[in-house]
Design goal:
The complex is a heterodimer. Chain A is mainly β. Helix content of chain A is about 0%, strand content about 55%. Chain A has strands at about 5, 10-15, 20-25, 30-40, 40-50, 55, 65-70, 75-80, 85-95, 105, 110-115. In chain A, the strands form 2 sheets. In chain A, strands 2, 4, 5, 6, 9, 10 and 11 form a 7-stranded mixed β-sheet that branches. Chain A has a 4-stranded antiparallel β-sheet with strand order 1-3-8-7, with no helix packed on it. Chain A starts with a strand and ends with a strand. Chain B is mostly beta strands. In chain B, the strands form 3 sheets. In chain B, strands 2, 5, 6, 10, 11 and 12 form a 6-stranded mixed β-sheet that branches. In chain B, strands 3-9-8-7 form a 4-stranded antiparallel β-sheet, with no helix packed on it. A two-stranded antiparallel ribbon of chain B has the order 1-4. Chain B starts with a strand and ends with a strand. The model of chain B has no long low-confidence stretch (mean pLDDT about 90). The chains are: A mainly beta, B mainly beta. At the A-B interface, strand 5, strand 9 and strand 10 of A face strand 5, strand 6 and strand 10 of B.
Amino acid sequence: DADVTQTPRNRITKTGKRIMLECSQTKGHDRMYWYRQDPGLGLRLIYYSFDVKDINKGEISDGYSVSRQAQAKFSLSLESAIPNQTALYFCATSDTTGTGLAGELFFGEGSRLTVL
Amino acid sequence: GDSVTQMEGPVTLSEEAFLTINCTYTATGYPSLFWYVQYPGEGLQLLLKATKADDKGSNKGFEATYRKETTSFHLEKGSVQVSDSAVYFCALSDRGGNTDKLIFGTGTRLQVFP
């Protein structure tokens, strides 16, 4: 099983619908992230969390919200989806407490969201 | 602000060819530099890193040298394989390598043909 698991892997929805993307990890890492990947734009950070009580906005947080339900779970919500939120979304984790390399992120396999 | 610029792709090579993917950066201070790789259908994974000037990161036959004088971190491999086909992302962070401060380039797709 993957260390960082995202669900769903693919989702097609309509404008105005509420969508939740879920991420769970078995790595025991304290930090978790949500990124968005668009062709020609690379990866952009949406939100990140250092622990359950610490949530921070990234570069492009407008239109998104997150919830850190537990150390191992970090979900991303689109309250009212719009077509320009069509993208590939990645969850990632990092370790600041153990022997993890500084700067190393561990990514899930991605959730492809299409908003019609 | 800090930024990373990568050469546009796709880069198309025959197996055993020499690979260079260019990356230049703009940053205040002394950033840490990274190459991440994304294989088809997968998330990104760290390929190599360098944390100070003249450091050389290496992994799986890939190398990149941190060149402060030219603000570059070009990725090279002497002989590519079909299995190297992927998208490669250059990234920078602050000197401590803080993951919340990673800035990614736009990615360069590499296609290797037999």
